[in-house]
Design goal:
Length: 769
């Protein structure tokens, strides 16, 4: 077998030699093209290619300039790779002309709808070059068109999208510093444009606060972009404090502002200075803004004066913004105040013991070269120059890292340590906790810890929140009194109360709004939990509970809420998912070389895909009140009793009860429907689960992941029927026994519910509990 180069017509006997030659040959063509462009006005387009992705069609690489006017120059690495595969095929490939209206100069729309739909599909589902090119070949082969509406290959389509111009999708770059012959750039979008971008999101200005103009600045936690990557990228996002919390916490209310350069230097002061130079450049549009700006809100121009309101960050990032020592072992480890390390676990401090940091005081220490006495870095803090902000107070705690992954994680770890160290059978108690957690039946919205707490180091915030719901029941009555006279013994009642107090406090922390009485109630709940926390764990904690997060929660969170709003708005949980979208996925589909430009191109194409998809008209779906899944049985009404007798020995006793009550309850239900009758031949389906209109899932099955699952539910009873059942303020509790679809016209979607020894059929709109 031989391989012929379509560029220079040389013939090679080995595939490897051919592919190596193809790379060099195409570079020569590129040089010729660039020289020709000096003498003519031919149109250019950029084609992103990756040697690995186009010879093996995996990933895209650096772009190569080619000319569209020459058939030879149109051959990219991918089409060369295609030529190799076509040489091995006996089928003659079809030849199509390029779309006549293809123009890779700046534009804002695709050449045609087919071109657009293909590139939106490839971008949305992250289809690689090889897969995309196969789609093109399949379409061209079976479309019976003389002129293909699609790009010649996916690289050409990506290049077209890269050249599309939208003012709100363009990134700029600026050189921030140069270190050891390496340039460090900041890639960013204009801050004012980012604000305008947010305001274009549909429904974003509903309930928009206009009485207090406020602009909130958020920073994502820095994480390694990939387990195989050695570089780190710090994305920065913004959102508007004028937007209500429930809406602000959604992804489309955030805007990627830019990527900070990460300086690789042993000189940490240089790293910190680079970080603050980047911040100064990002915020320059509002620093220079003297008279405010007009923004189009609710169909009219409204004058705004934007300013930095809050910075949401985890502990290391808060130290970077405030330029305080990061170590929790420093003498003054908290960024908001000058509390001493030995007082971090003291919940009885006076006002004089908690002295807040201010710009003036910290700046004086910096100028007098006494910054070490207040544990700040030897770098000028950019925020000292900004009006209307105290960076030490405006850097608010991230609720997810502060509570879910912070204090509650400590509580779980210390609980396990107590069970191990303060009891003779400590390991058995931990095993009992694991057994109880694994025995909890499956339920929608609750994580099942089949391995107990063995994987606690890898738990997510959502999984910790699931633990909050069940740990109090696991701990209650777990062990006896101190019969072995163990020192510093924590009795079981106190440990159970600790989890009770935590749940009460955590529920209050999730309020969207606080009145002054709510804050007093919340403050009491914090102190009640904190006292029990210190009492239970002060002897088991390696640091004697010298935890900055504990001090912050006890002494500063209430004042933060008064100044900056509910803590439910201080969360980077949404940014964690944005980090995956804006960093991890683009990084993984890059070639890991010169990453930043590739990330920006990928993000731009994703943004174009979302923008174009929003303008597409989706066919209206017929609404359904419920949707059944997992059909278990099918029978006719006249054969119901015979069928039940055949199946009763193979089903759970709850389903047996449902079979026994099926006919009588169905008759009672039909009596309530005036004029509604069914015939004996009516078919009936029994299902294992049903998804209700509100998205909740109700189950009644003998086997769901090898376990029985009959959902517990709550039914809001009609006022006329509430006296017939044992109810809790109009709510009746029960358990689903059967989920049935009676195939009449229209069909009846029914659930047989056992309500405290009362059986009834009801429409499938009850809510599982």
């Amino acid at each position: 077998m031989s391989f012929k180069c379509p560029l220079c017509m040389r013939i090679f006997s080995q595939r490897f030699a051919y592919t190596q030659h193809a790379q060099k040959c195409l570079k020569n063509v590129e040089v010729e093209v660039e020289e020709d462009d000096d003498n003519n006005d031919s149109e250019k387009y950029s084609s992103e290619m990756d040697t690995r992705s186009n010879l093996s069609s995996e990933y895209e690489n650096d772009k190569v300039e080619v000319n569209d006017d020459n058939d030879v120059q149109n051959m990219s690495f991918d089409s060369i790779g295609s030529a190799i595969s076509e040489m091995n095929s006996s089928e003659e490939p079809e030849i199509f002309e390029e779309p006549k209206n293809l123009n890779t100069k700046t534009c804002t729309d695709f050449p045609n709808d087919a071109y657009k739909d293909l590139m939106l599909l490839v971008t949305k589902y992250k289809i690689n070059n090889k897969g995309g090119n196969e789609i093109i070949r399949f379409f061209n082969k079976h479309s019976n068109l003389t002129e293909s509406p699609l790009p010649k290959n996916i690289e050409q389509g990506r290049a077209f999208m890269n050249n599309m111009k939208f003012s709100n999708l363009e990134f700029s770059k600026v050189l921030i510093t140069k270190h050891e012959d390496k340039d460090y750039f900041l890639y960013y979008q204009n801050l004012i444009q980012c604000i305008k971008n947010i305001l274009t999101v549909p429904d974003i200005t509903q309930n928009f606060a206009l009485s207090y103009e406020n602009y909130e600045y958020n920073r994502e936690n820095a994480t390694t972009t990939d387990t195989l990557g050695k570089s780190q990228l710090h994305p920065i996002y913004i959102t508007l404090g004028n937007i209500p919390i429930w809406r602000r916490n959604k992804q489309d209310a955030k805007q990627l502002l830019g990527y900070l350069p990460i300086l690789e230097a042993a000189n940490k002061d240089l790293v910190r200075d680079t970080f603050h130079k980047s911040l100064r450049h990002l915020l320059e549009p509002i620093i220079l803004l003297k008279d405010g700006i007009d923004l189009f809100i609710n169909n009219e121009n409204t004058w705004f004066y934007p300013r930095v309101s809050t910075i949401i960050a985890d502990w290391p990032e808060a130290a970077s913004f405030c330029l305080v020592y990061k170590s929790s072992n420093s003498n003054l480890p908290y960024h908001s105040c000058l509390v001493k390390r030995e007082n971090l676990a003291n919940i009885d401090l006076s006002v004089n013991d908690v002295i807040l940091r201010t710009h003036d005081e910290m700046c004086k220490h910096f100028e007098n070269d006494t910054q070490r006495s207040v544990c700040i870095e030897s770098v000028h803090n950019f925020f000292w120059d900004l009006p209307n902000i105290n960076i030490y107070l405006a850097t608010v705690p991230d609720r997810m890292h502060h509570l879910d992954l912070g204090l509650f994680r400590y509580q779980i770890i210390f609980t396990c340590d107590i069970l191990k160290s303060q009891h003779v059978n400590g390991n058995k108690l931990v095993e009992e906790v694991d057994r109880c957690l694994a025995a909890i039946p499956r339920f929608s919205g609750i994580k099942i810890f089949s391995n107990g707490l063995q994987s606690i180091a890898r738990l997510t915030a959502s999984e910790y929140r699931s633990l909050m719901k069940v740990m109090i029941f696991v701990i209650d009555n777990l062990y006896d009194e101190n019969n072995n006279e163990v020192d510093n013994f924590v009795n079981n009642d106190d440990l159970t109360k600790l989890y009770e107090y935590w749940n009460e406090m955590y529920i209050l922390s999730r309020y969207e709004e606080f009145s002054e009485s709510d804050l007093e109630k919340f403050n009491d709940a914090i102190y009640r939990w904190a006292r029990m926390f210190v009492k239970a764990f002060k002897f088991v904690s390696p640091s004697n509970l010298k935890l900055p997060k504990l001090h912050s929660w006890v002494y500063h969170i209430i004042d933060s809420i008064r100044s900056y709003g509910a803590i439910n708005g201080y969360t980077t949980e949404t940014y964690e998912s944005l980090h995956k979208y804006f960093v991890k996925i683009p990084y993984r589909i890059s070639n890991k070389k010169d990453v930043e430009p590739q990330l920006l191109r990928t993000i731009k194409r994703q943004a174009i895909s979302i923008r174009m998809s929003q303008h597409s008209v989706n066919p209206t779906k017929t609404p359904r009140t419920c949707k059944f899944f997992a059909r278990l049985f099918e029978f006719s009404l006249q054969d119901a009793n015979t069928f039940f007798n055949e199946k009763k020995d193979s089903v759970d006793n709850k389903m047996q009860t449902g079979f026994a009550r099926f006919i009588s309850c169905l008759d009672s239900y039909l009596d309530l429907l005036d004029g509604f009758t069914i015939i004996d031949e009516t078919r009936i389906n029994i299902y294992g689960s049903v998804t209700l209109e509100n998205g909740a899932i109700m189950r009644a099955t003998n086997r769901y992941h090898n376990k029985v699952w009959f959902s517990d539910i709550a039914i809001s009873m009609d006022s006329e029927e509430s006296n017939d059942y044992i109810s809790d303020k109009g709510l009746c509790y029960g358990q689903a026994l059967l989920l049935a679809e009676v195939l009449t016209d229209p069909p009846l979607n029914l659930a047989l519910i056992q309500c405290y020894r009362v059986y009834t059929w009801c429409r499938s709109h009850s809510t599982p509990i």
